[in-house]
Amino acid sequence: MSEELLTGEQVAALLKTTPRFVRRLVADRRIEYVKVGRSVRFRPIAITEYIERNRVVPLSRADIRRQLRRAA
Q: Of 1, 24, 27, 40, which has the fewest Cβ atoms less than 10 A away?
């Protein structure tokens, strides 16, 4: 296994958040993690996948109008 596992603190630094937020992601099972004994570790690809799943793409005005017409 050549892939390094990241700690919660390292993930928090990558996401520019707090370690508490990372623990909440784990508790809610919103991010993939690996249990190593009592510790939780993260694969770098899991962090990338989490970011991609939560990406928000901006809508154009035309897209917004189409959505409003469908809802009406």
A: 1
Residue 16 has φ and ψ, to the nearest 5°, of: 55, 50
Does residue 2 lie in a domain region? no
Domain assignment of residue 23, yes or no: yes
Burial 34-63 (b: 16+ CB within 10 A, else e): eeeeeebbbeeebbeebeeeeeeeeeeeee
Does residue 65 fall inside a structural domain?
yes
Residue pLDDT, tens place only, 20-68: 999 999 999 999 999 999 999 999 999 999 999 999 999 899 999 998 9
Cα 27 to chain centroid, rounded: 13
Residue 22 lies in a domain: yes
What domain range includes position 49?
8-71
